[in-house]
Amino acid sequence: VHRNVVFEGGVNVRLTLSPCRYLSQVMRLNFTRESHLRRYNRLLSYNLLQEMDLLKSLLESTHSPVVFCHNDCQEGNVLLLNGRQSSDKQKLMLIDFEYSSYNYRGFDIGNHFCEWMYDYNCEEFPFFKVNAQAYPSKAQQLIFIESYLCESDQGFDNLSEEDQMRLMEDLYVEVNRFSLASHFFWGLWSIIQARLSTIKFGYLDYALARFDAYFQQKKIWANGAK
User: Fold this and answer.
1) Where is the signal peptide (predicted)?
2) 19-65+106-221, superfamily in CATH?
3) Which of 14, 46, 75, 216 has the greatest count of CB atoms below 10 A from its CB?
4) Which residues neighbour 36 within 8 Å (Cβ) at sequence distance 6 or greater?
């Protein structure tokens, strides 16, 4: 999901996918269409400024290294190379690095898990479908996390089973807390796109879907559940 480049010792890295980047823009938008205005006002009723402060406080208490991330690892950006279907190790390729940047590890992995819920191959408005039940279970996440740690941490295989599980559980909490930031960021991004983009897509519907998921997952992860 990302290159294993970690900044230590208080290095200040500008994180381009921070939700704070878009919140002030969202608060200044104007919509004229009644259907857009109704959805926009519903989104504003969520008290986004207060939610941002709560989310920031949660993430500041969650350790997550800054690494170089893809930031948009969803179904349309992962390719299976031709001729690899029968290979012992199927080879996947990431494409479309337009959102790539230095970011928190938890955001990139949490964002990928969030994308399990969304299907963008839809020909009718709002041109996406959401299935909250498709969010990966803990067992599914731990399979991914174990594979990730085996690749990113050279000493992981040499640890005791107990220490391996501790690291896996820590990363499990990390990515699910940062999944809240994914919902928040793409929700804000989508509100802005509803005002600026000429692409036919239900951006405000998508923003509502992302914030609905944010509040559902917040019930679990804002309290530090495992």
Assistant:
1) none
2) Aminoglycoside phosphotransferase (APH), C-terminal lobe (3.90.1200.10)
3) 46
4) 194, 204
Higher pLDDT: 159 or 16? It is 159
Q: How far apart are CA 225 and CA 212, in angstroms?
A: 19
Residue type, 4: N
Residue with tokens 């390719």: 79
Q: Where are the domains of the chain?
A: 19-65+106-221
Instruction: Please report where in the chains the tokens 């879907």 appear, as a residue.
Output: 209
Amino acid at 224: G
- Which candidate, 102, 107, 83, 101, places its Cα nearest to that of 93? 83
CA distance 145 to 207: 28
Q: The tokens of 147 are what?
A: 């594979």
CB burial of 71-105 (b: ≥16 within 10 Å; e: otherwise) equals bbbeeebeeeeeeeeeeeeeeeeeeeeebbbbbbb
Tokens representing residue 31 in the block: 């919509």
Kindly provide the residue ranges of all beta strands, DSSP E only, lying in 33-174, ordered along the sequence: 66-69, 78-80, 92-94, 101-104, 118-119, 129-130
Name the residue among 95, 110, 179 with its Cα closest to residue 148: 110
Q: How far apart are CA 193 and CA 180, in angstroms?
A: 20
At residue 105, what is the residue type? R
Contact between 152 and 5 under an 8 Å Cβ cutoff? The reply is no
CA 127 to chain centre: 20
